[in-house]
Amino acid sequence: MRLMIVESPSKIKTLRDFLPTDWKFVSTYGHLYDLPKKGLGIDSQYKPEWVSHNPKNVKYIRQQAKNCRDIYLASDPDREGEGIAWQVAELVLNNPNKNIHRLRLESISSGEVKRKLAQEQQLDMKMVQAQWARRLIDRLAGYKVSGLLMQAFNRGGLSAGRVQSATLAKIVERDHEIKAFEPETHYLLQVKLTPEKKKLTTNFWVDLIEFRGTRIGTKKTEQLMTDQQAVKKIQTDVKQRGLILQQKDQAQTTTNPASAFDSSRLLSTAAQLFKWPVGKTMQIAQQLYEKGLITYHRSDSNRISREGCAAAAAFIRDNYGKQYHNWRWGGGGDQEGHEAIRAKYAGLEPEQLHSVSKSQKKLYSLIWQRYIQSQMIPARWDTLKLLLTIKGRFEVLFRGTARTIKELGFYRCKIKGSRNAPEKAFSRADFIKLKKADNFQLLQTKLKELQTSGPTEYSEGGVVAMMRREGIGRPSTYAATIERLKT
Known about the structure:
Layout: E1 2-6, H1 10-18, E2 23-27, E3 33-34, E4 51-52, H2 55-65, E5 70-73, H3 79-93, E6 99-102, H4 110-117, H5 125-152, H6 162-180, E7 185-195, E8 204-211, E9 214-215, H7 228-241, E10 243-255, H8 263-274, H9 278-290, H10 306-319, H11 358-373, E11 379-390, E12 393-407, H12 428-436, E13 440-451, H13 460-470, H14 475-486
Parallel strand pairs: 1-2, 1-5, 5-6
Antiparallel strand pairs: 3-4, 7-8, 7-13, 8-9, 8-12, 10-11, 11-12
């Protein structure tokens, strides 16, 4: 009899589907041991005092392991999972007569399990010690300060933990930036043109980008146009003299598909597109995972497993043609364990889903499309850049850009109701008119008075993006951290 020990009980049902009946399964439900709830639990040499906070489950795991000689520790392949595997091996079992194997599964699939079972793996003590260090720092940083917080606010349950404290500090820092910001007035001059004696179906606007050798704009390398009288004079001259073409450049440009979702990008994208709070997104993702529709939804990685890449390649080949496939392995961070969040079955399109809620279908559609598109070729555009100046005033320069789709690439994969190419683009007919034109007719000028915009308050999606950017916390902490700060 062989025993496999996993973290989450939801994985056991899937594992049973493709492993022989002589396998037994048990879940740790996360960490089995932790620092004591009362007291620091760390001695002067920084040695932790590990205390079982789930003795019933510890006893149950020992019972299940009693008649099993081969035991596979299949906790998550990350720092926390390595710590849990060590707890089982050293604190729960601690039996030299058992053959204990480490099994790091990047996805819960038949191919991945068979491949990893054929590999001999051992505990990585450096990863285990990294998990200890994280836990000890968490206790040292927050244990004493939390008491002061509860005393100061006369309220229990407050915490100065490592993750929420750092997140709160960044939110306060942003608030200070908002209050310190002073807006500056500047001007944007735009001119609407059309090729002489021809009409366009899409408006073609050119912007003032240079005045007396100085680049105009809001980028760090540019200067704001703050001289109202000067810009009004330019507007008058444009109306009276018109614009003449100085330079025309055509090139091909590309748009690459985004990588498959990791947790932070899934949370921030759902917040942006659906206006969902992060807690709702994680809850729905959990439901999709438990239904076996997506891979694990708490991931730092945008890397796709070999099996996932192969499945996407087959789907793309069968539905769009092999010429639209572009094999990508993705990336990942130094803490990555799981692969990216993707549809478990590439061929299960959103329209084929049954027995799911509207929200579940909405999120699945987003995950599925991002997964398939990530393995497709880039979109290609024909791009045209025009530089124009005022007759007799060559120190003034306007720029306009137009582009038209040449190859849809990954945009060929789209969920129902979405556009093929969401970026603003010109029709092929309009693009050719602009490309051939040497003279242009002025239709309209527009002078906008603007103010520089400072930093804005973080939305929930913005907090998630900031946490990822600053390296604060892990996917499993994002939603809980935000909820704690809200309270």
